[in-house]
């Protein structure tokens, strides 16, 4: 959806304790030029981001997103973000999303090449209408991510736990899924374990237990997955992080891709084979995800 | 170095046969905002690029760079670039580099999210002074790239042969090399074969033969390497593309990282072990690389 609002952020040091951030924000026309061609975000995909769901003006799970932003910054040797400043930026941007579902995106770029500081901004947009994939489900194909499950532990410079702007492979995987007649993809490690979708986490159900790939296998720790696990635990279900061979996914009682804006999309087909889904249960998950969450 | 010049390009269809492209170019201040925050280059590292060396206003090996730009576009499902238009943009940008060594960068982004066309631009800058690494050499460490040598053949969505804007891992590898006290890195496949440097190709010498990793192992086909191989063949040397185990690199008689702007930098240390170099020979390589090449 077209951006409704953009806010340039003059990034403060993490230890700056001021409480009013207004002077560090500049609203800009999202359709007008705001970034120079020397930006390393654009030249090198060199920066990090977060996408935060917004429901009727309320940004969801802000602290989890800000924690992950800080974690990504650390992995990428970017200056630690000033969390209070970013929290304030989220509030300003969320208030511009309008009613219904929206999305606030935070971007922290390494800045202009050889420049003094990072470049930072937030945007606000209405969300696309995801009622169809939530209700009717999605067809998914598995795609090799090329890395062994133990790659990130061996090679932190692969940035596998960071939510970087270098998403060309994620976008190519989505195009490949569409070419194959599917809606989305699930990445597998080169040694056959389930990882994540290009822009979502995976949760599968085995009886009354809900399982997600352990976030040490080169995947992002999904904020929506975290929130859903809390919710499921409150409802009395077991939840677990595991190293999941792809065959186990194929045998799951049900599975979902979950993300901050599309929320819980039940997988109805995996590599061409039908997967059971529980429409009523999915509805309850999305009702929770659409309620105000902090 | 600070950008001297930037040219926004209104991308033409590949089959547009006009001969005057002036009306499709708009010079912009490289220090002023020129891109919107909705740009997919900046949000997703979703686009491709080329860096072309310029010597006294002459852009080097333009056709090889434009061919690779077209190849990258194909791998990334971007519209085929109009080569004549890009050639004209290179000429305009190269003329703004001034005397001495410069660099022209071409960027083709997927454009604004949900927008109608790609975004394209070229920049011109004076090159940094690389006389020191050319003359005194560079210390290099090997780093695991995480992929097996046969990954790209299995998984084209990994975009391993495309020069995409998603370079966060390349930049992280350079930071890791610096942390280890080195100047640069050489990526290895997860099964122990030599690939490339984050922003350069590798050439090694074995007697009178010069060898480079075969560009089917998930690496870019280096334009400088291609040009040097032609030059070496003309001087009567053997040249070959091979699958090179890392031990073979360690036993090489000499090795260089070669790229469009730094040119040939002899490797004097590999993972802490000294490597022989031939200063006179390197000088002859760089003399060739600094001569006008088409």
Topology:
Two copies of one chain form a homodimer.
Chain A: E1 3-9, E2 25-28, H1 40-44, E3 47-55, E4 58-59, H2 62-75, H3 83-94, E5 101-109, E6 119-126, H4 131-136, E7 138-144, H5 151-154, H6 168-179, E8 184-188, E9 201-206, E10 209-213, H7 223-234, E11 238-242, H8 246-250, E12 254-259, E13 263-270, E14 273-274, H9 279-290
Parallel strand pairs in A: 7-8, 7-13, 10-11
Antiparallel strand pairs in A: 1-2, 1-6, 3-4, 3-5, 5-6, 9-10, 9-12, 12-13, 13-14
Helix pairs in contact in A: 2-3
GO molecular function (chains A, B): 4-amino-4-deoxychorismate lyase activity
Family (chains A, B): Belongs to the class-IV pyridoxal-phosphate-dependent aminotransferase family.
Organism (chains A, B): Microbacterium plantarum
Describe this structure as you would to a colleague.
The structure is a homodimer of 294-residue chains. In chain A, helix 2 (62-75) packs across helix 3 (83-94). Chain A has 294 residues and is an alpha+beta fold. Helix content of chain A is 28%, strand content 28%. Chain A has helices at residues 40-44, 62-75, 83-94, 131-136, 151-154, 168-179, 223-234, 246-250, 279-290, and strands at residues 3-9, 25-28, 47-55, 58-59, 101-109, 119-126, 138-144, 184-188, 201-206, 209-213, 238-242, 254-259, 263-270, 273-274. In chain A, the strands form two sheets. In chain A, strands 7, 8, 9, 10, 11, 12, 13 and 14 form an eight-stranded mixed β-sheet that branches. Chain A folds into two domains: 3-126, D-amino Acid Aminotransferase, Chain A, domain 1 (2-Layer Sandwich); 131-290, D-amino Acid Aminotransferase, subunit A, domain 2 (D-amino Acid Aminotransferase, Chain A, domain 2), CATH 3.20.10. The first copy, chain A, has nine helices and 14 strands. Chain A starts with a strand and ends with a helix. At the A-B interface, helix 1, strand 5 and helix 6 of A face helix 1, strand 5 and helix 6 of B. Chains A, B: Belongs to the class-IV pyridoxal-phosphate-dependent aminotransferase family. Chains A, B: Its EC number is 4.1.3.38. Chains A, B: One of its GO terms (molecular function) is 4-amino-4-deoxychorismate lyase activity. Chains A, B: InterPro entries: Aminotrans_IV, Aminotransferase-like, BCAT-like_C, BCAT-like_N, Class-IV_PLP-Dep_Aminotrnsfr.
């Amino acid at each position: 959806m077209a951006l409704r609002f953009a806010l340039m952020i003059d990034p403060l040091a993490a230890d700056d304790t001021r409480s009013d951030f207004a002077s560090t924000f500049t609203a800009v026309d999202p359709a007008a030029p705001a970034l120079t061609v020397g930006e390393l975000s654009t030249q090198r995909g060199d920066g990090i981001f977060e996408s935060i769901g917004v429901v009727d003006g309320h940004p969801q799970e802000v602290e989890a997103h800000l924690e992950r932003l800080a974690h990504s910054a650390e992995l990428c040797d970017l200056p630690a973000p000033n969390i209070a400043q970013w929290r304030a930026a989220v509030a300003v941007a969320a208030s511009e999303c309008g009613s219904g579902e929206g999305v606030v995106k935070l971007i922290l770029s390494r800045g202009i090449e050889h420049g003094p500081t990072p470049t930072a901004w937030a945007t606000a947009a209405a969300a696309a209408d995801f009622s169809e994939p939530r209700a009717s489900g999605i067809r998914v194909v598995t795609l090799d991510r090329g890395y062994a499950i133990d790659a990130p532990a061996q090679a932190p410079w692969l940035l596998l736990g960071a939510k970087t702007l270098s998403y060309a492979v994620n976008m190519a995987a989505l195009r490949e899924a569409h070419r194959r007649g599917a809606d989305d993809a699930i990445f597998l490690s080169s040694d056959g374990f389930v990882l994540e979708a290009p822009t979502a986490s995976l949760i599968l159900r085995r009886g009354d237990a809900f399982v997600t790939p352990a976030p040490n296998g080169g995947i992002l720790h999904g904020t929506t997955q975290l929130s859903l696990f809390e919710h499921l635990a409150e409802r009395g279900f077991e939840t677990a992080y595991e190293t999941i061979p792809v065959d186990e996914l194929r045998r799951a009682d049900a599975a979902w891709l979950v993300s901050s804006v599309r929320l819980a999309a039940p997988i109805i087909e995996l590599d061409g084979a039908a997967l059971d889904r529980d429409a009523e249960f999915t509805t309850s998950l999305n009702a929770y995800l659409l309620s105000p969450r902090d």
